[in-house]
Amino acid sequence: MKRRQVISGLGMCALSVVAGCSRLTGGGINTASNIPEVNQLEFDILEVGTDKSAEQPPQITCTTSDNRVQITGVMYQGRECDTIAPKSMSLENGEYRLVIAAYDRDESCGDLLVKAEYVVEVEFPEQTPNTVTAVESTDQHGEETQTKDCHVG
Question: Which H or E run includes 14?
């Protein structure tokens, strides 16, 4: 039996904020019943305070042979004590949509805005979606969106 784990939503973000974690895996709110076409979602913050540009939209790589999608990006997370995490996801009519958002931890940590580099790995049980849309959402800088057709050869 395939085990379905999905980490998404504000509940998981709240857990990561309280725990001070930068890696979100296992546990949390399981939305697999809402999106049965998703086996697993893993989110990692690779670096906080990166010098890489946040001016590019997220990058999407589809590996149809493994039914996997990887989304990478650099976005403003706010202040150094703030964080980024998956906010929502959906799968409708062959389009998978994932929103990564910045969250304010309501801590006093200065006003310097920092960028964070992240990677998201999503596994689908049968096949990759036709299209994948990744959205980076922040209060300070609006949204960056990228869409990729996974089945163009």
Answer: helix 9-19
Predicted confidence at residue 62, as pLDDT, reads 96
Residue 63 structure tokens: 């590996």
C-alpha pair distances (Å), 3 with each of 38, 41, 50, 97: 10, 12, 34, 21
The amino acid that residue 65 corresponds to is: S
Question: In DSSP terms, which residues pair with 24 in a beta bridge?
Answer: 43
Could you tell me the two tokens for 133?
């849309």
pTM (whole model) above 0.85: no
Domain boundaries, the chain: 9-149
Q: Which amino acid is at 33?
A: S
Distances (CA, A) of 76 to 61, 92, 149: 22, 28, 26
> For residue 3, is pLDDT > 80?
no
CA distance 74 to 85: 12
Token pair for residue 112?
């310097």
Q: What are phi and psi of 27, to 5 degrees?
A: 65, -155
* Residue 20: HSE in the Cβ half-sphere, 13 Å Cα cutoff: 3
Nearest to 48 by CA among 111, 102, 116: 116
